Amino acid sequence: MNDVTPSGVPGVGEVPWGSHFCHFYSTREDLVDTLVPYFKSGLDSNEACLWVTSEPFSATDARAALGAVVPDLAERERRGQIDIIDHREWYLRANKTDARSVLEGWVERQTAALREGYRGLRLTGNTHWLRRDDWSEFVEYEALVNQAFRSCRIVALCSYCFERCTAQDVLDVVKNHQFAVARRQGNWEVIESSALRMAREDLLRLQQAERALRETDRRKDEFLAMLGHELRNPLAPMLTALELMRLRGGAQTFRKETEVLERQVQHLVGLVDDLLDVSRITRGKIELRCQKVEIGEVVGRAIEMASPLLEQRKHSLTVDVPAQGLAVNGDPVRLAQIVSNLLNNAAKYTDPGGSVAVIATTDGEAITLRVRDSGAGIPPDLLPRIFELFIQGARTFDRAQGGLGLGLPIVKNLVELHGGTVEVRSTLGKGSEFVVRLPAMKAASRDAHADAHADVQAKAGGNMKVLVVDDNVDAAAMLLEVLSASGYAVQMAHDGPSALAAARRFQPDVAVLDIGLPVMDGYELGGRLRSLPGLEDVRLIALTGYGQEGDRAQSTQSGFSAHLVKPVDLAALRGLLERVDS
What we know:
The protein is built from 17 helices and 21 strands. It is an alpha/beta fold and 582 residues long.
């Protein structure tokens, strides 16, 4: 199992989930000293507990002894966290022992405990009731339990009375438990072979290491999210400045330099997006916005995204994809990302002047999309691992469009999220072909999802007033320049208080708000803007470096009409502004 829990038993310490061990006792006091701290530890650790009693310690005795150290025991019993019952209610429910029925009962109790939100099931059974002629059958039962509990979220402690066990019995018991604890004359002893002890210690070390790795992984994801935000902040004014140069005609004077800058900034944006996508995928945070979409439309959008690299390397591109008739139920943005990643991969590993082809066909109930190239091919030893994270083929010095080895793992995960498959075929020196298969949508199917921003309506006229709020002064200034050049009346502010003051005077139709603002964040600012006289219906657009699903959901819940991620897609922002209702 994936973690440990405190046993509560002196000399034992933590035990892994799935532990099945036994306790040899001589006196009633031995039972008290072992089982009371054992169950108190389980209750304190938010575990469900089941105590099956027998002589010389009845259910009434157990309840009194445990109640002395757990003051709210009666309330816990009422809630169902712990049951204390006599062995006749458990082992002898049918007037005889049915090993498989008893074992199934333990597992059912564990399932119920997990369903109720407990960490697992802690149990014990005292075998004092066991008759000599039932011993062999019970030994077989213990062997079944020992095997079954390894894969369960159960900790089980079985109690055996020394005086009722022969030497052979002790060997049978120890053989069918992971280890044994003995309490004699007030002294504790742990009985286990040196090999078993070493194996248990190794397991505990591995589980502790796994916990440390999970914590490291959690911190890594948080770091990537923060890194994406911090990288996007400086990228945003760079792209906006390039757009402004184009609007003012300056890009013609420095056309070559502008193209280089734009290409490299877009490359950085792609790297940041890949890092954040991997973080989301590994944590299961990718959420698809599915609708009916034609593969022809997806391929067209992907070619637009990949065309700068294809053109730079002077590849010939062949497209054999029908405009209509190949529909799937999918997320158009993520499907385009799949195809553009495959096209970029083909462009990177194909020498300048090579050929790339995209072909889509229907194959029964599936749509097959192929991306072929005449490139270097993939070495045979790399083929089985090509979809693993950070795996890349050999790269020569002229391949300046390097990546992080994330594109193909992202492709695989996104394809599988759409219910499809992806495979690769390649011969070294003779190119590669990636084959994506997606479930086809029946012609009668209707769109499964409306546009995420359908609430933003059309506005007539060109006198719209826009308030831009961003604590990155360069980003705010560049966005103001671009929107002003596009015919909008624009004012900017760099924090909440100054934004509120500007809004009172300016009365904007739309407020484009950075979320990570000083003094008050963008969510609070948006609420305060709408509380101002005359601004009850102001449209709010979030502009932030955080683009995960939770961030988008929070902005929607906070009343924002749209959520844009830095560096902003200026065409998308203009489209939103053009559709804002008057």
